[in-house]
Amino acid sequence: MAVQTKITKVAVYRHGAVIVRKGLAELKEGKNELLIRGLSAGADDRTVRLSLPEGIRGSNVQTRNLNEEERKEITEELTRKIEDAAARIELLETQAELWRSNADFTSKTSLDLKEMTEYLEKMPERIAKISEEIRALSKEKERLEKELKKKNPEVGGKVVTAEAEVTKAGTYPVEVRYHERNVQWYPVYELHTDGEGSDLTLRLRAKIRQMTGEDWKKVGVSLFTGDPSVSGTIPEIQPAHLRIYVPVVSSMRKNAIFGAAKMSMAESAPMMAEEEACADMDNTMEIPMADVRADYAEVNRGETMTEYELAGSWDLTDRVEVMADLNEETVKADYHIVAVPKLDDAAYLAAEVKIADIEHILETEAAVYLKGTYAGNVFVSPDMTKETYDLSLGRDESIRVKREQKRRHTSTVLLKGQKKTEYEYEITVSSRKEKPFGITVFDQIPISDDKQIVVEKTEISGAKLEEDTGILRYDFHLEGGASKVLKIAYSVAWPKDKTIQGE
To answer: What's the whole-model pTM score?
Structure first.
């Protein structure tokens, strides 16, 4: 008894999915041999489960590939129809050619003028009718070939065989569940804000993709944050053996190490800032618009993973990505401008948020929408030792930052046997905003890892200094159209017969 099944529901994990297929079986009284079709080649044989109504005795459940006879049975009728259509098209094309060739009367002497006239008058209509029939048959042949192509997953897929014993003949429901590996989804985060006084809206979406060879129509979909392909086995610690290791450093490796050290020194040299022209952006919209979104998923948080149950039914076409809206939440945020002019002459609009509010989206990428306009993608990777984190919302062209080296003078201190270099930098921050805005500027003073190297700061313009890192942080408000100058000055002294690395 062959049973056709249809996918009704899928539970999609980060990698893989549990598929639920349902069908109807016409069972006779007594014992029946079931052949349940529809499983794809990616179905995991070990996970197949067959369910039958209570009162029906099922046994001997097995999963296997189709044999040659069964594959032929699936495609036989469609193949025959395609061949019949092709033969009919060929016949009609021959008829049309005969009509055209018979219109040549140069070698015929028995036909009179009336017969030739009647033939020529009928020919256009007859050929047009033949052409119309050929077009209809070609269209039907193309439809049949597409239908046959859709059978490929079933032909190359698997079947479940079982025995079912019933006391009364009738039509009974059949359900098959199994794990399919060629399905996946991953989260897509969006950050929405107007960049000023409102809270930050964090929107979670899902990108779903299935590559089973079959188009899923009108199926229920649930997404799970876990991954059943990842082992849940508790690891067992093994003995750790210590041995003496004697490294062998070749001349090639020595050269590579020396080259890397020189590259590191070159990269650590101060960078000169460059001016960048800024253009006004007009984001004014004549008519207020609102996003159109699907209903959000129902969220069920379990012990080991979270389930997002999507509303309604979904069509998931083979090898076509589908986006689904999952959840939306509001996060408190303080907005300010962040600039690191030593590394980048751009200023960035940032939303300062509590790490506790975003810890579920750590180490991932998020798309930023500023006042409804896509502003780019950011990677969320905060320092978990801190309480807050600056989420970048993209470059802010209304703030200009310029860092210049004003002085670098090296002298010899004879009495101490030292060399001493004095550095002075000037950072200019200019605003073209219409109202005051908070600004944060980061810079640094080098720190000494050797007591022979002495670093002394002489001017930091009121910055907060992290002694162990040398990081300078300036926090201030800048009026619209105003500018502020920050000064950094320090000196570095070291033994004159030594060379400083990282200067």
So the answer is: 0.65
